[in-house]
Amino acid sequence: MRVDRPTEDDWQRVRSIRLRALADAPDAFARTFAEEAAFAEADWRKRLSSGSTTFIAVEDDADVGMVTGAGRRDNPGTAGLYGMWVAPGNRRNGVALGLVRAVVDWARSNGFSEVALHVADQNSAAIQLYEQMGFAPTGGISTLPPPREHITEHERSLSLGETICDATIA
Q1: Distance (Å, whole) CA 135 – CA 5
Q2: CB neighbourhood size of 130 (10 A)
Q3: Number of C-alpha atoms within 13 angstroms, CB side, residue 72?
Q4: How many H-runs (helices) and E-runs (strands) does the chain carry?
Q5: Which DSSP helix (H) or strand (E) runs through 19?
Q6: Alpha-carbon span 121 to 86, nearest angstrom
């Protein structure tokens, strides 16, 4: 597996992966498939040039996962890990670990002291992965925007002074 870092010229590739993610896991993301399918080229380009960094996992020349890292507006020393998704046929084989590592490495190299994320309470596989990698619950709780406000998420964070472990999900 390799991890690519797309530029705004790769907007169609990112759009394709993101729409696959939204179709596969509609209750895992803040936006819906319909919202993002309606985005124009300029919206996708802006997303890729706005100061955030997107990473794409590639196996056998196929895009099989994606994640984004960005500074958090509410806490300048913290980077957020957003939009994590791995294609169903590529789960539980290290793709997620590689993507999280890419965000952690990016955050470290950009001077952040912590990486935080939100994960749906019912997503036990993701919770297990993040737990094994050292992300601890912060006590923060939120819900997705309508029409999925019934889905609760909790926040987890990793201090970048910690060593990220080599977790895998059996």
Answers
A1: 23
A2: 23
A3: 18
A4: 5, 7
A5: helix 11-24
A6: 18
| CA–CA dist 32, 3 (Å, integer) | 25
E strands, 12-135, are 53-59, 62-72, 75-86, 114-120
In 3D space, the residue among 74, 77, 84 whose CA is nearest the CA of residue 108 turns out to be 77
d(CA 109, CA 124): 30
**DSSP code string of 21-51:** HHHH-TTSSSS-HHHHHT--HHHHHHHHHSS
- Please tell me the distance from the alpha carbon of residue 45 to that of residue 110, in angstroms, as a whole number: 22
76 burial (CB, 10 Å; 0-12 / 13-18 / 19+) is exposed
Structure tokens at 115: 């990486």
Provide the whole-model pTM.
0.91
Tokens matching residue 91 = 């789960």
The Cβ of residue 34 has, within 10 Å, a number of other Cβ atoms equal to: 9
What tens digit of pLDDT does each residue of 128-157 get?
Answer: 999 999 999 999 999 998 888 999 999 999
pLDDT tens track for 36-78: 999 999 999 999 998 899 999 999 999 999 999 999 988 889 9
DSSP for residue 145? P
